[in-house]
Amino acid sequence: MKARGFTLIETVLTLLVVGIGLFGIMALYQNMSYSLYNADLQVIATDFAQQKVEQLVAKKAFSGYGAVTSEAAEILASGPHNFTRTTTVEYIDPTTMAVSVADTGYKRVMIDVTWGLGLVVRLVTLVTNQVPLL
Questions:
Q1: How far are the Cα atoms of 12, 62, 72 from residue 120, in angstroms, in the given order?
Q2: In what order do the strands lie in the sheet with 81-91?
Q3: 91 Cβ contact partners less than 8 Å away, ≥ 6 residues apart
Q4: Which residue among 2, 55, 84, 88 is the one 20 to 30 A from 31 at the CA level?
Q5: How far apart are CA 30 and CA 24, in angstroms?
Q6: Helix-strand-coil percent breakdown of the chain, rounded to 5?
Q7: Where are the domains of the chain?
Q8: Distances (CA, A) of 100 to 17, 73, 122
Q9: Can you give the pLDDT of all 134 residues of the chain as single tens digits?
């Protein structure tokens, strides 16, 4: 009559296979958690950049085209994280979109938000001295 049950070798091999599978799942979970964490920081950085775009659009509406200028870097905090927001304004040639030395009536506004180890979100928009017709 044959004995029923598992041998010690079968049990050890089963535990080894299950352990390797769990190790792979844990590594995948860690990678996904890191990706989600970075995505959250990118959303925060994009929000900071969008806030600055809205501030500059309001500044132009209330103070005019000339009020839209480059600004010094700002340190912004969100929880334990620090972000640096830089606003750069350049005159551009409207036909080629190349940087211009003279005021052509068009400005390119670049807002860079950096955090961590050099990660960057950049929003770019154009501001003109044109007045919309109503």
A1: 49, 30, 17
A2: 71-78, 81-91, 106-115, 119-128
A3: 99, 100, 101, 102, 103, 104, 106, 107, 108
A4: 84
A5: 10
A6: 45, 30, 25
A7: 8-128
A8: 65, 23, 21
A9: 566 777 888 888 888 888 888 888 887 777 787 888 888 999 999 999 999 999 999 999 899 999 999 999 999 999 899 999 999 999 999 889 899 999 999 999 999 999 988 899 999 999 998 876 66
The reported pTM is: 0.76
Q: How many residues does the chain have?
A: 134
Instruction: Show the tokens assigned to 88.
Output: 């750069």
- One-letter amino acid at 2 equals K
Geometric angle at alpha carbon 108, from 49 and 38, rounded to 5°: 25
Residues 74, 45: Cα–Cα separation, whole Å: 13
**C-alpha to C-alpha distance for 8 and 21, rounded to whole angstroms:** 20
- The CA distance from 51 to 46, in Å, is 9
